[in-house]
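pasting for ref
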Amino acid sequence: MGLTEAATLPMNGLTAQVALEALGAEHGGTIAVTGAAGALGGYTVQLAKAAGLRVIADSSKKDEVLVRSLGADELVPRGSGVADHILALAPGGVAGLMDASVQQNEVVPAIRPDGVLVEVRAWEGSPVHGIEQRTVSVTQAESPADIQEILVKGQGSRVKGQGSRATVHGWVVVDHSFFPVARWCPWLAPRT
């Protein structure tokens, strides 16, 4: 993983981890993820697969290859009718649904009565009998060490890829090959 990709971990990777924990699905269980082609949804798909879950993900036609490469077991068309498409693959509903694309009321029917809906924005819908709604954010991550664990998993002891053109400053990853930041922000220039 390059440093540019690693920069998405603090917000999206940790939020996905918190969401997966909030779903509480057991190994072998089935969850659904909306917005699977986006950063948050994509990380959720990958972490769910690593946890041994079956993942049903929504996708546009143009993103199908990407979403499959992230590990989704089944794809459904995104947009109107997404809940019906999920129910066709999981009769009775999924154990949990991570709503990364904030479809809210549109996806509720796809969740079984004792299931969990995880949102990243405040719930604006009506209370749904039997479905637990949880709102998550990156601030619920246990510690900054979680980021390091995600970064180094499978990468050895450091992130590879950008050489001397990229530097890490606290929580911020600056890829100097993309933006010549040192010209306008010399305090972010690579240190020698």
